[in-house]
Amino acid sequence: MIRNLEIYSRDPDLRRRGPLPWESASITLSHLSVSTWSLTMDATAADRVAPGWGIIAALDQEQILTGSVEDPERERTSATSPGTITVSGADDMGLLAAMLAWPAPDRDIGVQLVADRRTGPAETVIKGYVDANVGTGRVAARRDPAAPLAREVTVAADLGRGPEISHRARFDPLLDVVRACVGESGLGISCQQQGDAIVFDVWETEDRPNAVFSHELGNLQSVRWRDAMPEATHAIVGGPGEGNARDLRRRSDSAAVQAWRMAAETFVDERSEEQDGPLNRAGDQALADARRAGIIEATLADTPRLRYGHGYGLGDRVTIHPEPGTAYTDQITSVTIDANRRDGTLTITPTVGWRSGGLYQTRQDREIAQLRRAVGALERSL
Questions:
Q1: Where on the phi/psi map is residue 53: left (φ > 0), alpha (ψ -120 to 50), or beta?
Q2: Interval 357-380 mean pLDDT
Q3: Gap between the Cα atoms of 96 and 85, Å rounded
Q4: Is residue 21 within 8 Å of residue 41, measured between CB atoms?
């Protein structure tokens, strides 16, 4: 089946205009992160990729991304040609990524509190943070009176999905707060234009037992996997308090210790947290990050029998057989769509694993991000 990619321009008032005359396009849809896109086209369309403009992209007539122009670049090589323009940008999830979660989002900057703590179903907590900090329901104190046209998101109705969680935020990046609240809940997030509004919503990812990928089936291009000893099997979590009065607890991966006959400890500093649930989750997350078993990277192939959008989607859990007799279940972390109008090609490449398409490109990137979060938490506590 021939797949079709359509890309329309979006004006600053969120009205869809005509199709863009792109020659090549690349779109990367990312789970729990900002999706990105880039186009190359004739420079005569430069007025439709100006500040405030954006795109609406549809695959097989189904909308997959809406987003804003961020980086147009012009090139001209002769006096007789208007040249070309290469433009790139982010999807509308970038509205969340650009904001902070204030400790008192309903108050003026001069009267902030220690933290904004929210408790409830994961979806309720997530949507509460989003609405308070970048939603149409946020108070006037969060708006810039000199920039009334700055975009906000409409938060979809809360269905109370996900486990009970508790989270605190103090000038943390809003998207980091949302990711932390998603945790292991099995939820996904989306931010796309619907009509004349940009709508943020939460949805449930799915297990896809019939979505199986292997070299033998012809739908697995490459795969790297391992089953190595974890970097840590016990997490010592330090909560509030000082000296002998500090709240300390240990979270354990006893099965790994038993299998490898060796224990390894790591310390997790959560001094700003007071409740048991978040303290325990911090330790469990540290142990999850320390595991080194499973798919590192898998590049899948879009085939007539098993196509993206028909059989599985972004964030869904699929089965990878790296070799006969070995199977792993993991999430689709990104989907890249590359198209070229000159030769009529369109390639869809889903990926699984933390190395490609995950929140961090390498393990070192993840460790740097953890260090930045720790330094940021210290700065915000002062």
A1: beta
A2: 55
A3: 27
A4: yes
